[in-house]
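re: that chain from earlier
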Amino acid sequence: MTTSRYVRSSKLNLGTQQGTSFVIQNIRAAIAAGALPVKTITLKGAERLDTLAGSIYGDAKYWWILAAASNIGWGLQVPTGTIINIPELASVIKIVSG
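^ sequence. v structure.
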C-alpha cells in the first residue's frame, strides 16, 4: 500500500528528484466529480494540517491529503476559518495506487 503523493510523478534530474505530483490533481478531480466523498470542518484557532491529519488518520504525514483535498498549496499557511475537506484515507489510497 503506497501513500506517497509522488508515487506517480515523473523523475527529474537523472532520477534524483520527483516531478509535479499528479496524485494531487487526481484527488481534486475525484472530489469535483463526486467520486471521492469528503466531510468538511472549519479550522479553529491554531490548528495545523499535520496535527489534524494525525488525529483523523492516525499519522501526521498525511497532511498533504488534507491540503490536496482542500485546494491548499502549502499546509503551514492555513488561516483560522479555512474549510478543510476530509476524504476517507482508504479511498485516497486507491486513487494514489490506481
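DSSP finds four helices and four strands in the chain.
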